[in-house]
Amino acid sequence: MEKVQLFEALARDGKLPGMAVKVLQDGATMLEAGFGLADIDSATPVNPARTVFRVASISKPIAATALLKLVGEGKIGLDDSLYKYLPAYPPKQFDFTIRQLASHTAGIRTYKGKEYALDKPYSIAEGLQVFQDDPLEFEPGKGYLYNSFDWVLLSRVMEVVSGIPFRDYVSREVLEPLGMVHTCPEIPGHLPEHTATFYTRNFSGFRKAVPVDNRYKLAGGGYLSTVGDIARLGEAYRTGQLEYSGLQTEFLTSDTIDGKPTYYGLGWEVSRDSEGRDFYGHTGNSVGAYSLFRVYPEERVVVVILVNCTNPGVENHLESGINAIFREISPLA
């Protein structure tokens, strides 16, 4: 199978330590495979059914699913000002909305310095201090700047509105209903069984990644999961299983700036692959992780790839593997 050979080569040739892949077509598993090692020292292979990875920014679609429910219930308005929910947030030169935060058009800055690998046990509320005193990068609605801090703010809004911790709300309203039993926040020192070791790559090979604490940015990049769980999320969207599935179109439609698409909806990338196939999903890159998640609505296909290494630089290889998947799966009527 060409696709398997392409993925096997990545681990065999030392491009990455380990990787899990899952592909669904019409809800049926077309590929579920592990490649390489979940832990190098013990030579533990990746088990696609149970190896747990950092999913990095695939956390955003998880958080967006919680936001969709609160919007559907009328508890949050997408075009409401942030300050309706967080009146104590430091005032900026412009007002901005929930929708602008979710679409990365609010002007909130991205990481600087060592913030990408921050190792502080901040709560979500405490995490606001990292960026709350900085000015906006542009007038909201006039630009696009991808970042995770937007979702720190949104997760704090969801805590205020729901009256419970964000992690608990997501568990109750998203993960449990969808059967995502292997998905959870990463709590340093309390990793689930079968969690892959997190690596970075240098010229001499792979080394264990520096410790990080992602709790404050759980909504933007702090979840752990398996390929099977993320595929469940994709399939729920593809088949309209969500309670407020009528709102999906709004979340899965690319925003535009000056008439040009940003290729980003509300917590979801909305784009085309190298062969012109439309998809929505997300990619992620964080300390010790790279992730890819795509839902192809026309082909009725879900693809999930999780890697236990920071920025392995294998995007083109993965794209080739995805193209091979489409060459090998049965054509759909």
TrEMBL record:
Record-level Gene Ontology MF annotations: peptidase activity
Lineage: superkingdom: Bacteria
Domain (Beta-lactamase-related): residue spans on this chain: 5-315
Classification via InterPro entries: Beta-lactam-related, Beta-lactam/transpept-like, Mito_Ser_Protease_LACTB
GO biological process, one term: regulation of lipid metabolic process
UniProt xrefs under PANTHER family: SERINE BETA-LACTAMASE-LIKE PROTEIN LACTB, MITOCHONDRIAL (PTHR46520)
Stated name of the protein: CubicO group peptidase (Beta-lactamase class C family)
Organism: Zeaxanthinibacter enoshimensis
Upper classification of the organism: Bacteria, Pseudomonadati, Bacteroidota, Flavobacteriia, Flavobacteriales
